[in-house]
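pls design
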């Protein structure tokens, strides 16, 4: 297959910090601008709009479509959960137990749950939170301290999350029961997390330079990447059973096929620092470049694989 075509959409402020992406119910890509306190909207036709939030310093981080037709996002620098509708109107909800704007709770990952609410991580407070579409918040403490819960995603009737500093994954039921699954190397730094088409969860190990897979019963398989220092960050399931992820340190997007082969796609600028990524309604892959805008990669299918990865099964 020929090399993919890459188009970059520039933002008004090159230092605004595109961070996370989500496909909205309106068919547009919605992107958090972590350094500017803004949310951007990119239409399939290439129109880019930006919407200012009520605080330029709120640090919008991860964003997800909600069950109410709006987009929900974490504000990691002022301890709030934000909501923006498809017309650009936004509001936010304070989290309990923190000083206003203290940033001590550090809400980070967020996802729609199977119960019609939004579930989020409080990285600085060792808690998983739940917020209803009316703004009511419940929280569930995690075992231990300093685990730094990061990304969270729904799978079946529960939620799974990564514990970046504890080297573990966790599962929480809708009534708050938590099970932890330690990874073989505690210092591996799990961050990104997605539910795969195979019924398993796939995650990135940013410190170890690996992609991991965990089954519902806790069986773990790890895939070492060609460059252990590439810093894999966010990950999403592809339309063909593969997983796509960003390599933050090397300015690449990569694909891991179901048979364990990796294809790496260099972005135009190695220092662009890709973070979040999502597939658009056009089948292309989009990624947020903290230094560079929003990149569209077409086609999203694989080129010739750079190398075959050796999978090490761990139980």
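designed seq:
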């Amino acid at each position: 297959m020929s090399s993919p075509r890459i188009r970059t959409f520039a933002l008004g402020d090159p230092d605004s910090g595109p961070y996370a992406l989500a496909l909205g119910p309106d068919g547009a890509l919605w992107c958090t601008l972590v350094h500017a306190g803004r949310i951007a909207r990119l239409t399939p036709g290439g129109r880019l709009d930006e919407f200012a939030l009520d605080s330029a310093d709120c640090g919008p981080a991860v964003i997800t479509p909600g069950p109410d037709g709006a987009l929900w996002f974490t504000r990691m620098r002022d301890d709030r959960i934000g909501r923006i509708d498809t017309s650009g109107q936004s509001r936010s909800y304070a989290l309990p137990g923190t000083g206003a704007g203290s940033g001590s709770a550090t809400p980070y990952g967020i996802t729609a749950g199977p119960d019609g609410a939004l579930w989020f991580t409080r990285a600085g407070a060792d808690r998983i939170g739940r917020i209803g579409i009316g703004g009511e918040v419940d929280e569930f403490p995690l075992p231990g301290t300093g685990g730094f819960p990061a990304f969270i995603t729904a799978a079946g009737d529960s939620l799974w999350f990564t514990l970046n500093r504890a080297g573990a994954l966790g599962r929480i039921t809708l009534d708050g029961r938590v099970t932890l699954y330690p990874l073989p190397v505690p210092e591996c730094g799990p961050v990104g997390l997605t539910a795969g088409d195979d019924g398993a969860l796939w995650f990135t190990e940013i410190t170890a330079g690996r992609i991991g897979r965990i089954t519902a019963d806790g069986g773990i398989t790890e895939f070492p990447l060609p460059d252990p220092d590439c810093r894999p960050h966010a990950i999403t399931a592809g339309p063909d059973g593969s997983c796509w992820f960003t390599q933050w340190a090397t300015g690449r997007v990569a694909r891991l096929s179901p048979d364990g082969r990796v294809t790496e796609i260099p972005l135009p600028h190695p220092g662009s620092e890709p973070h979040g990524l999502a597939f658009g309604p056009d089948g292309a892959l989009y990624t947020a470049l903290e230094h560079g805008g929003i990149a569209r990669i077409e086609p999203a299918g694989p080129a010739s694989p750079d190398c075959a990865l050796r999978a090490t099964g761990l139980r």
